[in-house]
Amino acid sequence: MSEHHYLIRGGLEGRERLRVLGRVMRPTTLALLERAGVTSGMRVVDVGCGGGDVTFDLASLVGLTGSALGIDIDETKIELARADAEQVGVTNVEFRVGDLTDGLGEATYDAIYVRFVLTHLHDPQAAVDIMRRALRPGGRLIVEDIDFRGSFCEPEHPDFERYEEIYEESARRNGGDPWIALRVPAMLVAAGFARVQPNVVQPADLVGESKLMPALTLENIKATAIRHGVAGEEEIDRLVDVLYELAGDPRTYVANPRMVQVIGENAQPAD
Ligand SMILES: C[S@@+](CC[C@H](N)C(=O)[O-])C[C@H]1O[C@@H](n2cnc3c(N)ncnc32)[C@H](O)[C@@H]1O
Questions:
Q1: Does residue 248 fall inside a structural domain?
Q2: 6: pLDDT strictly greater than 80
Q3: Torsion of CA 57, 96, 66, 89, to 10 degrees
Q4: CB contact set of 168 (below 8 Å; sequence gap of 6+)
């Protein structure tokens, strides 16, 4: 899968959106990693790691006796992540350019983390199978993904609804599934995972950074939405302005997509 087909803008601007998203998600992601038993000495991989926000948290959890590898198809994001690693002097982390669909090796890792990636893939079940094979028997797959149906704005606003429509339609025309989250638990069961534990989280607020996500997201899918004929530039620019206004209004309660966290244990022997 090439960068050309990815829904959300990559490179530097895409990285800045991920920094905000990373801060919004960090408390619930850290709680998830703890529940999944990510701990000192483990070999872990963060698939579709973007700028590596969670890869750094994984590196800190596994410590110097373990290692964290971040893989992403976006070369710019990987370069930025490498520069961040050098700057903070983290030595147990590595970032690599790579495509998940090309495989990850066999029975290699203690845990694999994958956030907001399956939603973009043409064949997410094949990706779950690939990750299962890359885990040692008993290793954990840890997934977070979105269900766009859960996002809301209260009071309701037609421009917010139009933003949801543009996102969902652009994602679909790009070969992804904006509602994938609710299907992920069954996908892990189908791939041969045991003790599959799903959990729902949803960043929603009257103030603060989570409210910026709809405007940032629409800005970053603009090129794809235009390419697929879902909306024009003028309409998107106007909607982005409205979404920033809603973010700044403390009477407006805005929720990001409902997110499902799933942990599964690889119950299969090494292939
Ligand atoms: C929405 S971002 C999420 C990044 C990161 N997981 C996070 O939560 O901050 C999705 C990432 O998946 C990467 N990606 C998409 N398809 C991929 C593939 N087939 N293999 C590896 N990375 C992929 C994109 O380049 C992008 O950085």
A1: no
A2: no
A3: -60
A4: 148, 178, 179
Domain limits for position 192: 3-148+176-203+257-266
Pick the atom of ligand 1 nearest to 10's CA. Answer: 25
**Residue of minimum CA distance from atom 1 in ligand 1:** 116
What ligand 1 atom has the least distance to the C-alpha of 121?
Answer: 16
Helix H or strand E segment including 109: strand 109-115
Ligand 1: residue of 2, 32, 72 to mutate (most ligand atoms within 8 A of CB) is: 72
Residue 266 phi, psi (nearest 5): -65, 110
Residue at 221 is within a domain:
no
Q: Which of 28, 117, 216 to mutate to test the pocket of ligand 1 (most atoms within 8 A of CB)?
A: 117
Tell which atom from ligand 1 comes closest to the C-alpha of 114: 6
Domain CATH for 27:
3.40.50.150
Q: Which atom of ligand 1 is nearest to the CA of 99?
A: 20
Q: Give me the number of domains the chain comprises.
A: 1
Q: Model pTM greater than 0.70?
A: yes
Tell me: the pLDDT tens digits for 215-270? 999 999 999 999 999 999 999 999 999 999 999 999 999 999 999 999 999 998 87
* Residues with a CB atom less than 6 Å from ligand 1: 1, 6, 8, 10, 18, 21-22, 48-50, 53, 71-74, 77, 99-101, 115-117, 120
* Inside any domain, residue 230: no
Residue 64, in any domain of the structure:
yes
Averaged pLDDT, 179-205: 98
CB 110 within 8 A of CB 139: yes
pLDDT tens profile 67-92: 999 999 999 999 999 999 999 999 99
